[in-house]
User: Fold these one by one.
Assistant:
Number 1:
Amino acid sequence: MKDRIVFVCESCGASFPKWMGRCTSCNEWSSLVESVEREKKKPPARTPHDAAVSYAEVDVSPTDRLQTGLPEVDRLLGGGLVPGSLVLIGGDPGIGKSTLVLQLADGLQRAGRRVLYVSGEESAAQVKLRGQRLDVAGQALFLLAERDLDGIEAEIVRLDPNVLIVDSIQTVHDPAMMSTPGSVAQVRGATTRLLASAKSRGMACFIIGHITKEGAIAGPKSLEHMVDTVMYFEGDRQHANRVLRVQKNRFGSVSEIALFTMDETGLRPVPNPSTALLKERPAGASGSVVTCCVQGSQPLLVEVQALVSSGFPGNPRRMTTGVDHSRVAMLLAVLEKRVSCQLASEDVFVNVPGGLYLDDPGIDLAVVAAVWSSVRRRPVRASTVVFGEVGLAGEVRAVTACARRVAEASAHGYQRILLPAGNVDGLGTIKGAELLGSAFVKQALENLLETRNEP
């Protein structure tokens, strides 16, 4: 088969012999880009190492994990970095991805690991300037400003590092491929070669990936399937808080998060995220409710704020930050239909302070309670925590990990916990906490109004 021109979808990686306006595989518009399909070589003969082995004979002895120097990152990875694993980190430009991996490189080399940091966007001097600001030191960290994949692999062979960091995969260029760096074929081909090197050498590898305007990692979707772990670094660049979220992890649980703060000396883990996120909560303000969400296995107390104000009749605004816009629209419809709360001509703003984005359905009841509190102009008592999923019939559905949510709320001194009735029976008695189970939204809001004369 000779080299030929094909058109590859940047979204799903499907290839077509000619350009089309729409990918017939994933239905994305204007996602096909030109690429060159190289001549296929005859596959090498199979060796005895390729032979199948009995399931009973497979060695599953635990692997010693590498400690990164950031305990929160080790927790997200499932206890440390697994040798031979490939970790993909994505995030907005300027959010701090390069700072994060440089601090990880420093922690690994301080633990006696040889680290090769490959930068395709900055020179070695620029990387060191950032390292001096972060107090990076040591002789086991090697910097390489290189985009050519052949040159990178030559340095891997020469140095034999324990950990490889590539910043970023979109800048790496395989000279054997005629497509430009950052194209679908280049990203997929470079990742495949790095994956082979990592697995054959037992070398852990961090790869930084650019993201699209929709927030997904740029390149074919197959890129996320190829790697072992996918992490997203999130946050507002104007805000000090940063969130590292695990989207996929073959060696640990998913949806785990770690909270960091960014300052002039780099990223610092937040030891108690619940306390940090609630320390600036205004006292006695209507529209402010504390809820407990679960991110992976970690319960987290956060504040949900709502503001309802008069808008233009027939054109009300619905603005959300930190929560799904469509979900909030549904909850407002439930309030109007099931609780007779008229919002058709009101502007509604919902916000989760701290730079977090919450997709846990357990915060539904807190959003409803915050909007209700703003409408009635009655603050919810500061010692109340609210959580529960809300259905279209106005019912409050049971949530997962309820015991952990209640324990987190009780540990931080919250004495009144408003939760789904379906979760109350399995909890028993919680010392120092009053559990108020509600089967419907209307009943839950009545429980909230009992605090109207309390501070």
Number 2:
Amino acid sequence: MSGAIAWWNIRHTELGSSPAGLTLQKAYRLHSIGSKLREHSIKQVLSVLHSAGVEPLLVKGWAVARLYPEAGLRPYGDIDLVVRREQHALARETLRSVKVFHWVDLHEGAGSLDKRPIEDLYARSRIVELDDVAVRVLAPEDHLRLLCVHMLRHSVHRPLWLCDIAASLESRAENFDWDICLGKDKARANWVTCAIGLAHRLLGAEVGGTPLASNAMKLPQWLISDVLKQWETPYSMSQAPVTHHAPMAKYIRHPRGVLADLKRRWPNPIEATVYTGGRLNELPRLPFQIGECVGRTAMFIARLPRALREGR
């Protein structure tokens, strides 16, 4: 998915006309066409929701792609929308009447993406235009924080997510409010700082002049090593839960292969730290990984009776 960005950086060099460069150019052209198709779907979806009296927040995807020099440089899949809880049922019912080629990921409140109160996010949000359709997006401070936390929750396995953070960081206005972005939660502020530090260390994003510059430059060495290890296979098919061979409940009746699958489920140290609410520092990650295993096991046991009753 980063082929378009790679071609953009070599397009005026000799590499741009090389066989590899021409392959990257094809990716750029494909993503440019795809971005127009997705923008059409977004306009369809938002127009229908607006007509029903629902005004969602559009996050990730197009909301960050618009920060790039060209939208085609940042391909995306789902259309991620956040709506107030009291409007979720109406939004879901309304979307059933819309026939679009792209999946709409409708979030009931922002709980799965951000811990800030939904009304605070709406109050700071702003309207931007996509042709003739008004799109409500998060304030830059809230969106940068969301991008950082989302990336770490998924172990930073996609390099493109780090490009999003760099684009958001370098396109911020002079009045960008770091107090809003970082917030009062020390653990989350640490996550945002480390995510921005990764963008600086691995992509060269400029962090000078920010209040977190010194901390962003002092990353735990294990964090950098783990991200680079993730990037050896930056594909969704190489990540959980796709790598899980079967739901754990299935092994209750058919235990063959359970040990191998448990090994595949051993949590990544970044994911485990965020899951348990810890900080990304030089301390060993094993306690956090064990903590995630315990937490997920407890949830599995709690859901198990119902799963067995339903035959799952």
Number 3:
Amino acid sequence: MTKLVAKKKICVVSISLAKGGAERSTALLTRMLDRLGHEVHIVILEDKIAYEFAGKLFNLGKPKKLNDHLFRRLKRFQKLKRFIHTKRFDLIIDNRVKNNSLRELYYLKYLYTEQKLVYVIRSGNLNNYLAQNTKVLNDYMIRFMENKVVHFVAVSKHIKKEVKDKYNIKNISTIYNPIDNTESHYTDFKRNYILFAGRLVDAVKNLRLLLHAYSKSRLPQKNINLIVLGTGSDFEMMKSLSEALGVGENVKFLGYKSKLDDYYANAKFTVLTSRYEGYPRVLIESLAAGTPVVSVDCKSGPEEIIQNETNGLLVENNQPDILAWAMNRMFEDKELYIRCLENAKSSVSHLKLDKIALEWQELIEQYT
């Protein structure tokens, strides 16, 4: 990527740089901006780093204590305010969840005064990314936020439409999450497993649906295992349920992995069962590795990624029998499988890092 003459000083804000698709996408954003030639700074609020990033790190989570009282929090935010106002950024790109109106008022009126702000919305569950308190306070916060924020970025077209329809926010566009141009160690055959990767939290990832559908499918009887990558509060529940469903020996829990390329490349296919997403990395990374996907049609992202019967299968959510049928079909229908296999990589070629970086550059030029 060619370095640009119009170098800008940009700050990217995130809760952390670990253990989630939103965090990985944020880390990739810093790398895109750096490769474009900008001076990149990244602020994280928790001392958690797993993904490669670019730029200078301001780790506000490092001095954080377990028993973190109000005085310590205020001291840290005073430090952040000094940092922001000393650096005089051309643009701040904020990727945090924004689900508390009072906290957002504090950010906008105290921390982000006289700053040009871009807010990124990374979830189809808008309660996570736009303030939710009483209706009066929430309505006031949305209007105040819209006046202070120069632009909102939604990671899917569905999110953009819902934000416009629900909150009447007009200064919003869609920029998809990118795929990294990494190389996987792909063997000349797919191994005997299907893959699930994500946080083991049933309230988000619908893990019960995953296990029920897998147990109803014919894959366990054909020695096609389910590999589960990730950690979370429902790990023990998943182990117990897989045993109760009679597939305990077929479900392999391998824990959290920061690099998934080899797992994607060698899986028969990747499964997503979430209740909601944003623009799920698990799907685009699997396809980029040349592996088809089977996904539920949750809000949001899968319908904008999956070309049904061309690079994967997209089925109704919360229907274990239908999901089991899709798993069987992807494995047993050889014509379908080969077609999806051949189309996987090309179906996400528009998401390559360099292409998404240029969309961010257009936005930066518009507001700096």
Number 4:
Amino acid sequence: MFRKLLIKLTLLNASVIAILFFFLIAGVYLFAQYDINRHSKSFLSRVAADINAGRRPPMFPGPFNDQATTATSDSLPAPPSVPPPGLSFSRPVPPPDDEMPHPIIFYAKLDPAGAIVATSSTLPLPRAQLETLVQLVGKKSEPSSQIFFQDATYFYYSVERQDAPGRLLLFQNFERERGVFRTVMTALAVIGMFCFIASLFGSLFLARRAMKPIQQSWAQQRDFLADASHELRTPLAVMQASLDVIESNSDELVSEQTQWLNNIGESVKSMAALVESLLFLARIDTMQHPIDKKAFALDLAIANATTPYITLAATKKISLTTELEPNLNLLGDEGRIKQVVGILLDNAIRHTPAGGEISVLLHRLNRSAQLTITDTGEGIPSAHLHKIFDRFYQVDPARNKGGAGLGLAIAKSIIEAHAGTIQAISKLGVGASFLIQLPLTTSHKESPAS
């Protein structure tokens, strides 16, 4: 189950990254196309204005003139006339014909019928192909756009002539830009493939990390159900056995069945306490804190919670002493804090042998109150310290001394609901200490009378 979920999470994350990268490439492509067309249209409109006004655009070298339609398409403009006597300047020698670059921008003037009457002095393609290109442009409804012709891409711009009736068509060769653009898009695609492969490994890593708390929660739920079933099975078995004995002795009076009835009563109390603990933890988990916060004197609450256990400890020949700093006020649930003290003292008494000692210390620590409950019992192995607050956890289930393993989990939940902390410090064979820190109220009123 977890393996399938891991694969689904990995593929889902990788797919999301791939889709985002696809939209990135598509967005770059569309924006680049739009930007190129926008700049070309703006540029060619200025060139068209210069041509219509009879000015020489800077991209046309030499004297600005049109090439008549009777000229051959491969002819070049005549070289500039020799300067007059007395005026001399050097003119660079033009390169050979095979090294002459094709013009990036050229134009054609059309008459009202669409026939070419003049062109720019240099053309990148033969006259017959230019006429075909002009005819293709004439079939388009847009006054400016891109057109693909003879393995080349051109941007054309059409405007009315001002020197005579007809239209002026300007063309800009995009092959150089498209070559660079294709290189960039190819690089993006290759990088995208590598990124997608890398995203698979990254998604697998993230999915595994995301699965850890899910697996832990699943394991905790499974263990919780198993432990709860185990804890409920014992009192139910006692009740069933007692009822079987009572049914087998149906002729006896109720007074003669007292032992079995008492067993049933004790089992019912045990199950009720267990169900109440489970209900409390369930409310804590669903953020329905059964916490009624009011200001109260923490030292007096701990003293009241400790008093019943002094007698219980004495019956087991255990010394229980308290040292409580007065005037420590806490905003919280007094009953739940007493419950925590009772849980910790009950554990300490159960795990401390006769002749041992238990101490309860309360003092101020900066803006917090620190409660320390220490015993000289058997202690807790270091390997179990980080697990003892888990539900139903028993350090040694074979030596269960009456607890269901929920007490410390409930204590931790109550302390955390009060924005406090609880931790255990222990050394095997020496004893254990539970340290609790709780934030005090800002105002220090006098403790109410007990």
